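Retro notes - structure team

What went well: the batch runner handled both jobs without manual restarts.
What didn't: labels got mixed up in the shared folder, which is why I'm recording both outputs here explicitly, each with its sequence directly above its tokens.

Job 1
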Amino acid sequence: MRRALLLALAVLALPLQAADLKPFSASYTADWKQLPMSGTAERSLVKNANGTWDLNFKASMMIASLTEQSTLRLENDTLLPQKYHFERGGLGKAKKVDLDFDWSTKKITGSDRGDAVSLPLNRGVLDKSSYQLALQHDVAAGKKSMTYQVVDGDEIDTYDFRVLGTEKVTTKTGQVDAVKVERVRDPSQSKRITELWFAKNWDYLLVQLRQVETDGKEYVIVLQDGTVDGKPVKGN
């Protein structure tokens, strides 16, 4: 259960302009509806001297922790992942993933929990962190349904999303106008529910996430504070 919350914290999405990335930092709180349990998460996006970007994520809950980093570059408005690292420790089973995206040979190589990974690399394939930037980009562009090819274990999986409408969301920074999006899953395959809210006036930064697990456990992640391109996020 705590492992599920850490993984949900990793779904926090990022601000992205149509043809540019902006540095940012954001912190979030997460609470279970049924239990007196909470967690925190932080994300940052930093531009490197060589033009690539590092997307960093860290989450903690009780004695469990999770870190994630994706190095990527933006080319002709397309995100191209370069390296991906994921590590979970503490409570539950430990997990470590390292992937290299070689665009010259069009191959993805690395390891996932000690197992070798070798997959073909085509334009549009993303890792579990960089796909969130693509989602952010498409929501900002006004798209109503989105599909992404994401490296998941030793295969490339399809992630589907759709826009549900607009709502006002109360965050720790105040009330914001947001676009609500949901992850589309085959109900015969999964009963999980994932809903996300993106702030319209703050480069579509994720301000809230609601997750319902197959066992009915529900938790909500809410923005605590953040900056986009150096400007503090403020609600109405």
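Job 2
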Amino acid sequence: MNSALKKYFPIFAGPTILAFLIAFVVPFFMGLYLSFTKFKNLNNAKWVGGANYAAALRSESGFISALGFTTIVSIISIITVNIGAFTLAYLLTRKLKGTNFFRSVFFMPNLIGGIVLGFTWQVMLNAVLKYWGQTIVNDWRLGLAGLILLVNWQLMGYMMIIYIAGLQNVPPELTEAAQIDGAGKWMTLRNVTIPMIMPSITICLFLTLANTFKMFDQNLALTNGAPLKKTQMAALNIFDTMYVLRNQRGVAQAEAVIFFLIVSVIALIQLRLTRSKEVDA
């Protein structure tokens, strides 16, 4: 069997590995190189060393403030999305009528593109805010609230499906044993259910973290960084530096590398912390 796998491995895995190298690995290392250069296109890159990284970390680039705003949006969204998704999943696994219908309804926003979501929520929120003489871009706090509402509406249904799968895999004999021992619903939830669905929690936290930190199209469509770039998230800042400030493409590439490292480190720490709390079924 092992010899057969070794024989046919290049045939079946080769195209996928090649595509991965072309689409991800090679562009990543090219981007890493370009982050140390000043360039307008790939043919005229001029080596500048760490100057791009120094420029990216200066306050005038706006990258640090964009990272700070991204962190605020991500922290709030991770908490609200996962609490809301778990609550919905818990209710929809209680054998209530119409659960399949509600699962589909809550999941549907995840199928809508980010640009469409951004413009849709902009119109809806501005229609409400106009009664107070406001718009979503008048105050950065309104933009923050709008982004969090949008993220929750888009991601909560998707995370709910993952939590439902985790809850359905909790052995019923464990909850029955806890109830026989006198544990109430809250104690059973805290000491039996939640530890058993830690793999689902790990996945949902990781996906929420990745989606909110990398959010671009929703931010572009909803506020485009207004007012005064105060609601500009990191991905949108990198885009503006790359394509609006034409002579700053090397700085934008340095920002992208820094952003990649930050998200990777945070994701690894989160995975390590949550996986350490997982228990065997």
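One thing worth noting from job 2: The mean pLDDT is 89.
We'll revisit the folder naming next retro.
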